Amino acid sequence: MTHPEVLAALEEARFDARLDSRHEDLAGDERGPAELAEWARIEQLLADTTMVYDPDADAYVQDELAAETERERQEQLAAEQRRQEDEREDARRAALAPDAVRHALLRTLTATGLLEGLREDEQHAVERLPYADPQAALTFNALLARAYSAGQRTGREAGQV
């Protein structure tokens, strides 16, 4: 754009701002003053020159575009991070699903050989615990597996002495 074209655009922006100020629904619109300020900045940039305005060569415009690109990149990263957190939470909840916890507990009891010898009330407890408190059932399952593993190691060590 040449300087006279920029002056014409600046005048048009001033005229639009005056019209907008007369309409209550447009008076608070920030775009009008921002557009007016941008045309005034460009007019000052070209005021004492014969050069043509080129937005690709305008450092201010390029900085604004770079900042906008960086904001968009940050928003995308934040959205991706939220998506991954949601997936992790979904996986955690799935792991705590009563049926999954119940099966884990039954596998551990089978591996330890305890499932066969459970009394009826113990069997009912094994069935109810994952539904009543999945986290407690998982904790109990881990404790049971560690105790079994420790007993296995102690038995092997006792046999080697």
The structure class reads mainly alpha
- Cα radius of gyration in angstroms: 36 Å
Mean pLDDT, rounded to whole units?
86
Distance between the termini: 94 Å
Main β-sheet, in a few words? none
Quickly count the domains.
2
Helical residues, percent: over 70%
Q: What's the total number of strands?
A: 0
Count, helices:
7
What is the percentage of strand-forming residues? under 5%
* Spans where pLDDT lies below 50 across 5 or more residues: none
Shape: rod-shaped
H/E element order: HHHHHHH
Give your account of this protein's structure.
The chain has 161 residues and is mainly alpha-helical. The chain has seven helices and no strands. It is rod-shaped, with a radius of gyration of 36 Å. The N and C termini lie far apart (94 Å).
Quick summary:
The protein has 161 residues and is mainly alpha-helical.
Question: What keyword list fits this structure?
Answer:
161 residues; mainly alpha; 7 helices; rod-shaped
Summarize the SSE layout with pairings.
Elements: H1 3-21, H2 24-27, H3 31-46, H4 59-95, H5 98-112, H6 120-132, H7 134-160
Helix pairs in contact: 1-3, 5-6, 5-7, 6-7
